[in-house]
Amino acid sequence: MNLHFFFFLESSNKKKKKSKYDVTRENDMRYRGLLSYRHFKILAWLFIIFSQIIVIAELKGTVGVTPINSADTLKALDYFSGLAMPMLLISGLSIILNGRDSYKTMLIRNGAITLGFFLVFLFVYERYILGLFSAFTGSIDDAASFAKTVLTINNDNINYGYFSFNIFIDIFLCTLVMFFINYEPKKYFKGKKIYLFRLMVLIPITYEFASIILKFFAAYGKIQLSLLFSPFLTTKSPLVFFLFMSMALFIKRREKRFLKHGKTKEDYNEFLKTNTNSFQFSRFMIIMILIFAAADYFLLVITLIIIYRLKGSLTPEEVQDTVKIIKHVGIGSNTDLIGLIPFLILFSYNKLHKRPIIDIAIPIIGVILIVFLYFDSIFVIIRDLAGVLVQSMSENMAG
User: Fold this and answer.
1) Which of 207, 143, 148 is nearest to 175 (CA)?
2) pLDDT tens across 99-136, in order?
């Protein structure tokens, strides 16, 4: 058995645990996870690429070119793609806890990436998607309508009425949640005004729920959402927000309790560097994932009951389609987070690396690979559609 895993079990099963307030590097536990924030970042970007492969595959399948031959492969990619966002958030939070980054830097970075995704999507949509489809439909308006149908319908022939793909909007909003809970303002919001700053956590939460409502209305045809809204729609369940809110509160509460026991801020910062705190942090996340995965499932059931009551009745086929819509909106699809648990068992948030340039290079390489995937796929779609057009013209001429 892996020696590290043995120490993990040994440490978790001890009946008598020394108080965390007395833990130092000298009497620290021996177990330390093999995976660091950098490994999580690399895996997260790999899983982001997986998610884009799925989007491209569905697009190709909807257009009717290069059919999808390996549904099992796409299912596996879809499973791992759901781990990308929490892994990036955990990686970013780890960097902050280690003092190598700040909430301001994280917000600027994730905000810039979110805006970048919008600009890239706008360019590809206006330049290539509308340009490609207008060549077949004859007008920009018809091309826009056809493009929306292609992008919002899935392989089960369910038209969701919207297209959401930008997980960085979720990451940006979750970072805001942790920022408003944990950050200590230096100039403003001093004294009792700090409560006003904490209440600003309602801003990202309201945005999340507004996005959920818009997606439900679009899925049921109550409103028409332009594709230009796509990069700003959330992709995850609101319970993911509360999962990371619980993590932020865990950090905040632990610091307060530490200081109440006569320890100093310096003592607490030293405790953050211990294997014991790293292990307890991972253990807390695992417990919260199990709790919120169960809550997410019950939220799906409750949402289904509400829709059933509103409609009066649902056929078995309508129930299946409704469940698919609810999951597509983001509710009930986060049981996949359980797949994060094995990674968390092997994770140590305070494991550091040299050469920070590598951390900067990881997202750049990821974005380059995604851009290459989309341009290559656009080429394949144009090639196959051109082949179909040529074949059709040849048949008409022969006729």
Assistant:
1) 207
2) 666 788 888 888 888 888 888 888 888 877 787 777 76
As a whole number of angstroms, the distance between CA 86 and CA 64 comes to 33
Quick check: helix, strand or coil at residue 214? Answer: helix
Map residue 224 onto helix, strand or coil: coil
Helix boundaries (H) for the chain: 3-12, 37-63, 71-81, 84-97, 103-124, 130-137, 140-152, 167-182, 194-199, 202-219, 238-260, 265-272, 275-311, 316-329, 341-345, 357-398
Amino acid identity of residue 9, one-letter, is: L
Token representation of residue 104 = 């301001």
Give the three-state DSSP class for 153: strand
Query: For the CA atoms of the chain, what is the radius of gyration?
Result: 24
Task: Please report, for residues 69, 86, 94, 379, the alpha-carbon distance to residue 74 in angstroms, rounded to integers and kept in the order given.
Answer: 9, 20, 31, 21
Angle among Cα 356, 3, 36 to the nearest 5 degrees reads 15
Tell me how far apart the alpha carbons of residues 104 and 262 are, in angstroms, rounded to a whole number.
Answer: 30
Kindly report the number of other CB atoms within 10 A of residue 302's CB atom: 12
For residue 98, count other CB atoms closer than 10 A to its CB.
Answer: 17
Q: What's at 171, amino acid-wise?
A: I
Number of Cβ atoms within 10 Å of the Cβ of 207: 17
**DSSP notation for 348-383:** -TT---S-THHHHHHHHHHHHHHHHHHHHHHHHHHH
pLDDT, tens digit (0-9, with 9 covering 90-100), for 177-230: 888 888 888 777 877 888 898 899 899 889 988 998 998 888 888 888 888 888
CB 230 within 8 A of CB 121: yes
Q: Which two tokens stand for residue 293?
A: 């995965």
29 Cβ contact partners less than 8 Å away, ≥ 6 residues apart? 7, 11, 274, 275, 276, 279
C-alpha distance from residue 122 to each of 169, 226, 373 (Å)? 16, 12, 17
CA distance 116 to 169: 11
Contact 35, 346 (CB under 8 A): yes
Q: CA 345 from chain center: how many Å?
A: 20
Bridge partners (DSSP) listed for residue 347: 35
**β-pair partners for 3:** none
Q: By three-state DSSP, how is residue 389 classified? A: helix
Neighbours of 127 (CB within 10 A): 11
Contact between 159 and 145 under an 8 Å Cβ cutoff? The reply is: no
